[in-house]
Amino acid sequence: MQVTIHVPEDLAAQAQAKGVTVQTYVERLVEQAGATGLPKARKRSPEETQAWLDRLARFSDKIPPMPGETFPREMIYEDHD
Question: Where along the chain do its domains lie?
Answer without folding.
Answer: 1-36
